[in-house]
Amino acid sequence: MRKQVVLYKKLSPALMTRLQERADVIVIDEPNRDGLARLRAALPHAHGLLGASIKLDAGLLDLAPHLEAVSSVSVGIDNYDLEYLDQRGILLTNTPDVLTETTADTGFALILATARRVVELANLVRNGQWTSNLGPLHFGCDVHGKTLGIIGMGRIGEALAQRGHFGFGMPVVYHSHSPKPAVEKRFNAGYRTLDDLLKEADFICLTLPLTAETEGMIGTEQFALMRPQSIFINISRGKVVDEAALISALQNNQIRAAGLDVFEREPLDPTSPLLTLNNVVATPHMGSATHETREAMARCAVENLISALAGERPANLVNPEAWRKTDSDHKP
Ligand code: 8YV
User: What CA–CA distance (Å, rounded) separates 113 from 123?
Assistant: First the structure.
């Protein structure tokens, strides 16, 4: 019997053909509020799900009694209840590696845009307000040679360190669960406690996953440790930061600026105080959003799902516990 797959993120024609060779596919337009009703209606038939950016909690997945695998088109897995998935033996896969470089590029785009005030000054030109040579009122600050602080030294953190060290001659300091000798050797990077990094770095970049441990990790106390010339960059998850504390730190000039690609609630409310501040560059969760990378992520997600529904261990399995459970179920 052909498995049923519910797709809640569009695929290219080539990948749609690839998936339809192996399963019957129900397509739900990117489920906004209306789409969510269609997703709920499709779940009772689903053996596999493929998509991203929707919280698939127990309430939703209880509607899918035949579900075997969820293939996320993302590296972040905070939209999924791993305990629930393990308990039901539902495999979860993600798309690491293929988006690392692109997301690190986004991180550096925000570093440069905030330090050199690119958006603000480009708008000056666009609005016909460039009437004389720039003076100190419009000067930004240098990036090269400044200290790059990275909180969370995973794949994306390492790619940021590579750009800073080799590309911009930046001393690199980092904080993570444990020291990473290979990273220290490759980038002459120094391990710091979180507090020491916040006091020392000129650019403070968050590349952490959102977990129960990291939620709200950067708040009033942490912003108070940063220096007035420091710039805060978030390309991880909005909820790692207390957004009200960030707004207050910016409004009170506790930090120079912020480059933000993620927010506590997305899309960001157009009335957010963040959007009234000239020293904030806010982008719409575009970290991995290039044609090449999103196609590579979708290709990875399709292959993960095909493997999982064929009873093979997927390449990017997030929850091996569920595999062990299904494996024992398959054993005679
Ligand atoms: C987008 C991301 O959420 O991979 C992640 O975890 O945050 C981004 O890449 C994802 O690409 C949406 O499809």
Answer: 12
pTM, two decimal places: 0.95
The total of other beta-carbon atoms located within 10 Å of residue 52's CB is 21
185-228 pLDDT tens trace: 999 999 999 999 999 999 999 999 999 999 999 999 999 999 99
Measure the CA–CA gap between 141 and 203, rounded to whole angstroms: 11
Q: Residue 329: which residues within 8 A CB-CB, separation 6 or more?
A: 89
Q: Along the chain (332 residues), what's the average pLDDT of each consecutive run of 10 residues?
A: 93 97 90 77 96 94 98 97 96 98 98 98 97 96 98 98 98 96 98 98 97 97 98 98 98 97 97 97 98 98 97 96 71 41
Ligand 1, CB within 6 Å, residue ranges: 52-53, 73-76, 99, 287-288, 297
Catalytic-residue membership of 138: no
pLDDT at res. 326 = 67
Domains contained in the chain, CATH given: 4-96+291-330 (3.40.50.720), 100-282 (3.40.50.720)
The pLDDT tens digits of the residues spanning 258-301 come to 999 999 999 999 999 999 999 999 999 999 999 999 999 999 99
What is d(CA 121, CA 119) in angstroms, rounded to the nearest whole number? 6
CB of 100 within 8 A of CB of 159? yes
Q: Which of 220, 231, 221 is nearest to 149 (CA)?
A: 231
Is residue 113 within 8 A of residue 259, CB to CB? The reply is yes
CB-CB contact of 235 with 114 (8 Å): no
Token code pair at residue 319? 């929850």
By most ligand atoms within 8 Å of CB, the mutation choice from 74, 208, 239 for ligand 1 is 74
Give the nearest ligand 1 atom to 103 CA: 9
Tell how far the Cα of 142 is from the centroid of ligand 1, in angstroms.
30
